[in-house]
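## retry 2 of 3
previous attempt timed out at serialization; input unchanged, resubmitting
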Amino acid sequence: MTARLALICRHPLKGHGREDLASVRLLAGQAMPWDRVWAVAHEAARLDAGGGWSACVNFARGAKAPELMALESRLDEATGTLTLRHPAQGEVTFRLGDEAGMARAVDWLRPLNPPDRAAPARMVTASQALTDSPWPSVSVLSLTTLKVVSQRMGVDLSPHRFRGNLWVGGWAPWEEFDLIGREITVGDVRLRVRERIGRCRATTVNPATGRVDADTLAALEAGWDHTDFGVYAEVITDGQVALGDEVQT
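## retry succeeded, writing output
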């Protein structure tokens, strides 16, 4: 079976919403455009003093605030305007970079965060994308692997639990791990697969409801002796990728 690109997702505000795309232009050495460019720092955050990359523990995210996993987003690239939607909270629209608008959005998000956790304080950006890796990565995941994990659990797991960028259909289960250290081609774009993605409790949350309902971490550990899912890749060449593009290994 020919492997093809089946789903493209971006997350402009780290940990807060996801948006499916039909295509995207990738640039060498960079994360997906508009992916995790901003994040919500909590009140206990210790951010990089020089404005560089900071680890995910500094930000509000689904692992600590499950309700955030139910957010969806829509970005107007021309204006940098982001709309967040939540099934219980409604929606809020603001422009990324506008301090007043972002402060209003943080207030809107506050009820979605547990009262016993560090409260969201402000939206921040950095000199590079705030991916979970300390280097600008694009995450690549397999729908086949998702299917075998779903079958083991008896649950139809949504790809959005794993907050990936590029989802591939047609690989063998766990084939993505065999690609570490190698290059793949998506359409005309080359990427170098660098490392596996270790998973957190955010994947236990149903993105339709914001409720914890499936112990993905226990299932991965019991079935495969690890809690990894997907791989991080580095973009090697510029180019456009689109749904249906062939993925060559």
